[in-house]
Amino acid sequence: MTTTGRFFCADAARMRGDPIAGTAPRGLVWVLIEYRSGWPVNGFDGIDLAPEVKTHVWSAAHAVRARVLLVRRLARPRPEGPGRWAVLHYEPSGAYRQRWGTWTRDEDLVEIADALRSPGPTDHPPVVLVCVHGQHDVCCAVRGRPVARALSERWPNLVWESTHVGGDRFAANVVVVPDGVYYGRLDAAASVAVVEEHLAGRVHADHLRGYTDLGPPQQVAVAALLGRFGPAGRHDYAVTGTAREGDDWRVRVELRAPVPTAFDVDLRAHRAPPYRLTCRGPAPSAAIVYEVSAIHSA
Please, what are the domains in the chain? Predict the structure, then answer.
């Protein structure tokens, strides 16, 4: 997909071999708002809503560090009728805590603030988000749209197109919520395989950016174990300790099933050379990379 003379951050990151593990942003709560009009570059902050409603929703989300994303179905023409909204809470138990509602007037979105204060019921399936936010970064649209089509054909009731989820250079990005699992560098075929395995309770190291309840070194440690010992369920591994001495880290991870086992994963952090990491941002930036040096049975 490379075009002569034009910079694509995802192409550049693949050519450099940028590590993907440890790049999922932290987050335990998500707010999804179905918005069928055009998405501005700054997502929710830029849409045309009554100012008092936008402030109310944003303040409530900020108070619990929730991420607010605009979403839409891939179907053409766009569906009619009320839009939907959802509040999704991560649960360490794996329960899919979600509250869903509808909105036709701006004022209807005020209900999101109430939903943020209490976890929802567990009778909803997971949600699969595909970042296609081309206004934010062209790679997200170019690489994300084929993935959104493939996943929507397979799971039309689970999949939503989404605004920016982070990590443009790893497009196409898919996030399963409220599991809080980020996958990246996907194409159409790989995305179907990855999501199918995820829904069957098997997370693979390939394409895994990380779990959003963990910090970067912890994400890398879990990915290293998945890579060495094979796929596992989202909550089969638990981080039970993290120690740091300068650039050296040790992360203790316990495998809960089938037999409880603990591992110490040693990592070293270093700053990569500065590169241009997004299509829209011309200034180079240096990412921190965590490399696994050893895995020990604890």
Answer: 16-214 (3.40.30.10)
